[in-house]
Amino acid sequence: xxxxxxxxxxxxxxxxxxxxxxxxxxxxxxxxxxxxxxxxxxxxxxxxxxxxxxxxxxxxxxxxxxxxxxxxxxxxxxxxxxxxxxxxxxxxxxxxxxxxxxxxxxxxxxxxxxxxxxxxxxxxxxxxxxxx
Length: 132
Known about the structure:
Layout: E1 8-12, E2 33-36, H1 39-44, E3 59-62, H2 65-69, E4 73-78, H3 84-92, E5 110-114, H4 126-129
Parallel strand pairs: 1-4, 4-5
Antiparallel strand pairs: 2-3
């Protein structure tokens, strides 16, 4: 913060709607914190650990939601069919701690980049579909 804050926040999104390891919960942490990773999140991150779930850390450090939302601009990347429901909900659903990514609706400068599979449930106008 003393150096001017974050200019660009680059995020991925989990199948459960977590961003920055801010897992769905009754209350979300505002600032950087230690988080206990959910089993599904650990499974999704097993690749770099040779697929061995037992080697995937059970905890991680994460920026909190307030820190993320204070960035000047945000880019969210979503790939794969398993993210399609989450992408649709984050764009069209209510803002809820059950889907932390939905809080991106509050930010004035968010770009969401999806592949065809992750955007599969979104309605696309024919003229827009020609340019994907």
